[in-house]
Design a protein that fits this description.
By secondary structure, the protein is mainly β. Helix content is about 0%, strand content about 55%. It contains no helices and eleven strands. It has strands at about 5, 10-15, 20-25, 35-40, 45-50, 60, 70-75, 80-85, 90-100, 105, 110-115. The strands form two sheets. Strands 2, 4, 5, 6, 9, 10 and 11 form a seven-stranded mixed beta sheet that branches. A four-stranded antiparallel beta sheet has the order 1-3-8-7, with no helix packed on it. Strand 4 (about 35-40) and strand 5 (about 45-50) form a beta hairpin. The termini are far apart.
């Protein structure tokens, strides 16, 4: 079965950096586009970044452009999100996501807290 496991969250100060990772299994990772989403307290889940199967297409939410970098390693079936210049408004649970045949697959998420 599809498994997505996020790691790397934590507490960081305003302006700091974190690197999130997503370990994927149970499907053919190298042919799957992947997403990072986040959900802040009291807010809807929002798309943060997308990367195509070979990494040739990358998109970011306007709120993170220039600060976050999505990447993937198809040999290891992993995806990463490098987050720099973090702001308190980046505080959220971050989720790894795969969409396939109309189905959303989610990890359990990793909490990122940015203190001011």
């Amino acid at each position: 079965q599809v498994q997505l496991v996020e790691s790397g969250g934590g507490l960081v100060q305003d302006g700091g950096s974190l690197r999130l990772s997503c370990a994927a299994s149970g499907f053919t990772f190298r042919i799957s586009g992947m997403n990072w989403y986040r959900q802040a307290p009291g807010k809807e889940r929002e798309l943060v970044a997308y990367i195509s199967s070979l990494g040739g297409v990358i998109r970011y939410a306007d709120s993170v452009k220039g600060r976050f970098t999505i990447s993937r390693d198809n040999a290891k079936s992993t995806m990463s999100l490098q987050m720099n210049s973090l702001k308190p408004e980046d505080t959220a649970v971050y989720y790894c996501n795969r969409k396939a045949d109309g189905v959303d697959y989610w990890g359990k998420g990793t909490l990122v807290t940015v203190s001011s």
